[in-house]
Structure formats: structure tokens, C-alpha cells
Amino acid sequence: MDRIKFVANEPALMIGKTLIISDLHLGIEHVFYKSGIHLPSQTEVLAKRLDDLIARTKANRLIIIGDVKHKVPGTSWQEEREIPLFFSKLSKRIKTEIVLGNHDPGIERLLPKEIKIHPTEGFLLGDFYLTHGHAWPSQDIKKAKTVIIGHNQPMIELRDKLGYRWIEKAWVVSKLNRKKLIKKYKGVKTAPELVVMPAFNDLAGGICFNREKEFMGPIIKNAGLRNAKIYLLDGTYLGELKDLVSI
User: Fold this and answer.
1) Per CATH, which fold does 4-243 belong to?
2) Among residues 22, 37, 117, 227, which one has the fewest Cβ atoms lying within 10 Å of its Cβ?
3) Stated pTM of the model
């Protein structure tokens, strides 16, 4: 049975030969532009990074679990121009699939026909359930041992002895609450593990899990986050979230 392998120093994981990422947010620079901040498009940078990652991992399948584009509602001129080219090149390199996120309405028309689209509910991959995290999964979640989501884009605020603070992307590994899940999904026998993925796009930011108390989406609200295990992208284990409260 395939297990999860976190890719060192990248917000990406492998299940067998399948590479999984979340929260590309292509076109986010347009939002900065509208706010008076001029940044060059990072779409080519992301394409190169992803291309290198595919080569490094020898993946033969790519699944993006939501928020491929950034603007919502609607689509920016940058997304109209860059997304078709991005996925045209990508689909020639690797079998590519997308689980729709809350930023993705209408994205289907920008994608080549080779790209497989999964609904917002997500889908079951072996005993892993893949979904963006903003909507309730299908009943297939009852068959899953692990649920993998994005959406909240976890980060952790760190502080040194001199009081200097900085923020790092982080993996959050927790357990879903069976008693809460059974209210939605009758017949849940065991509570699946929950893995929350950091954003692939560095400009997308995220939520500082040791500073915020409110999280987005029905799945993560059914998790025991106090006891969640926190890992940095380089594999450093920071401990449980309850012990990492930022002051």
C-alpha cells in the first residue's frame, strides 16, 4: 500500500508516483497590481519550479487540490492569458488532474481537454481522500484512512531568544473527530488522519496556525488541532500545536 512521502523543502507530497500540490493561485500578481503594487508575473517561475519538482521526484501523475487560479469571482486578464499556456505545456509533460477549489469557478474553459477535473467534493485515491477543503467531501470519505486538504495554507510564526519573529510554511498533521463526522456521515468506523498542505505559491501567504483560532472549511473544523503535529518543510518537527502558541 502506498504511503505519503513529504518532498523535502517543498510544499508537495508523493503517494506512490503521484505528485500532489495545492494552492497555485496563478494570477495573484493581478490583485497586487490593482492595489498599486507592481510585481512581475510569477507564472513562468512556478512552471519551472514544478517542472524541476516533477523531474526530481520522477512523478508520472500530478494532482492539484484546488485554487489553481486566484481571482474570485471572475477571471483576470492575466489568468485568461497565462493559464491556458501553463497547462498546455504541463499536460504534455505529465498526466495532470485538478480538484476544484473555491477560487476555481469557470476554470474549465481555460484548460486543455487532457486535464482531468474532479468536483469540489474531491475524490478517493486508494485509501486517501483528496479535496481542497472548502466543501464537504462525498460519502467516499468513509473509506479513507487519510484526508488531504489545502485551503488554509498553514504557516507557523517562530521567534528566537532576541524576540525576532518570522513565519515559515508548515505541514499540519492531525486526526479528524469521529463523533463530529458521524453527524454528517453515518457509518464512520474510524476517524481518518488529516494532512493540511501549505500553499505552493509563495505569494499566496496563509494562516499562522499558532496565532489564529478560526480556520476555513468544514473538514478542518472537525479536527483536533490542539494536538496536531507541526512540521516545517525541511522535515523539522516542532511539536504539537498546543505547545506552539505565539505570544
Assistant:
1) Purple Acid Phosphatase; chain A, domain 2 (3.60.21)
2) 37
3) 0.94
